[in-house]
Amino acid sequence: SWSIFEDRILYQLLVFLQPPSRHSFKLELYGGTHLPERCSNIRVVLECTCLRKLGNIPCFVHPSTNSETAQHSPLLQNLCTGSYLDVEEIACWVQNLVQTAWEHLPQWQHWQLTVLPSSRSCRLLLSGPFDMQLSALLVFAVEQGSP
């Protein structure tokens, strides 16, 4: 969605997170009665690939005697606390990713990017020519029932 707020345009974007290959997200309920409100209740589950025909791709859940022990992807090691997604780590990772990518966009050389402090989302402020300002709020979500 977008709206005009005082002297700037505010964009609010819902960003759906997808699990890496051979992983899935499992939303855990509070006492089985209602949906979780925080990302800390989204468990990352390794999927067994033993019965799938994936060539030489090892199964992370059931490693063979010739392969290394079960392992998570490096991305999940950085974005999870234990087996659960950590929204603060995700927000920090996305903020750094956006800031790094911004430096490689020459078409935006007349705009300044400021990453605003936020621990549970990614808040950006773009300041451009003629005192124009754009503000973006990226909110993270997972789809219930997604693989």
UniProtKB/TrEMBL annotation:
Organism superkingdom: Eukaryota
Name of protein: IPIL1 protein
